[in-house]
Amino acid sequence: MPLFRLDSDQLTTLPVTNFAQEGVSERYDLQRLLREQIDVLLPDALVLTDEFADWDDSRRRIDLLALDTEARLVVIELKRTTNDGQLDLQAIRYAAMASTMTFDQAVAAYAKYSGSTSTEAEQVLLDFLDWDGPQEEFFGQEVRIVLVAPDFHKEVTTSVIWLNQRDLDITCVRIRPHRQGDELILDVQRIIPLPEAGDFLVRAKDKSRGVRRATRGGGWIDGEGYWFVNVGESPTNSRCWEDCQRYGFMQAGGGPKWIRQISRLQPGDKIMAYLSRHGYVGVGEVVSEAVMQRDFVSPVKSKRLLELPLEKAPMKEHLHDPDRCDWCIGVNWVAVVPREEALRLKARRQTVCKLHDHALVEGILSHFTPPEVIHGSTPKRP
């Protein structure tokens, strides 16, 4: 769609131009500006380096290499023209090469890029990830791809859509320059996936994984679909593990970042509940999508949570604010333990994130559940 200038008596089209005609270079202009303002392309991201080429036997360079708040690496490829029909394939090669990057290598890359010491660079990454210390086993388990160009060939968009349906995470961002007198206006639009469809596609993808797991006949150990969820209990909020296990729920909130995390969980997802300063306290299956705490109905009591006797009363200050209140998911607990009997194993620092460490998952499940539950069907509530 064209851009228009709104005048008093008409809409005037802003003519589309191109970067070559405007003397805008790919590396020294576009890449430099987007590197300094990465949120234009990708909110909640940290640029680790540019022109990354620390490979064995290869001279290929990643335009921008970033990190997101879930410790996933992000390969960003920029083109100022639309005549590259191999953009997706090139980015996939880079993503495969980047997938072996360790936390220490990321620290070294960021230190070189930012001109800081290794100690300073490590602290920046830890602060960004909200980690107390390096967690190598959780770093870079997934690699996202962001393709940026004035437009995309049909074979590229078709390939991207097909690959996203098969659990890759590729985003296409269209950047088009428009001329308005002496000013150059940049129109930035995410076209795949459409912003409005983003949450739906995440849910659809998670559902698709669940269907594939059911088709394979897998039990609780099937290699995927496990989530770490932090109870989030603290003296300054209304969260309480005893309430969660008694009434069949988990909750998170206090801001859009944490609400987005818990909203990713869908019915059928399997969760491992973690209580800070104690350990893992329960395993269960999600039975209802996230809703505002004021609207949540306990799957155990079939009553609104706010009507039930709670160990910790809800905080009324943000109860009706969808961007600040807590959101709750219903959980069918397979097994729970008191906080004093928590399983002390490694934890993630995010509120909600996927678990990719199969040994960790098996260790938790073997502690909490009998063999017939692990390898059989989902049990009823104990």
Strand order of the largest sheet: 3-4-5-6-7-8
Compute the separation of the termini in Å: 56 Å
Q: What is the total domain count?
A: 2
User: Mean pLDDT, nearest integer?
Assistant: 83
Largest sheet: 6 strands, mixed
CATH topology of the largest domain: ph1033 like fold
CATH class descriptor of the largest domain: Alpha Beta
Structural class by secondary-structure content: alpha+beta
List how many beta strands DSSP finds.
14
Shape type: globular
Approximately how much beta-strand content do the residues carry? Answer: 25-35%
Order of helices and strands: EEHEEEHHHEHEEHEHEHEEEEHH
**Rg, please?**
23 Å
CATH architecture of the largest domain: Roll
Helical residues, percent? 25-40%
Number of helices: 10
Unreliable runs, pLDDT <50, ≥5 residues? 196-202, 208-219, 371-382
Please give a structural write-up:
- The chain has 382 residues and is an alpha+beta fold.
- The protein has helices spanning 26-36, 87-98, 103-114, 118-129, 154-164, 198-216, 241-247, 256-263, 358-368, 371-375, and strands at residues 3-6, 11-14, 45-52, 62-68, 73-78, 143-149, 170-180, 183-192, 226-230, 249-253, 270-275, 279-292, 326-336, 352-354.
- Helix 3 (103-114) crosses helix 4.
- It is globular.
- The model is unreliable at 196-202, 208-219 and 371-382 (pLDDT under 50).
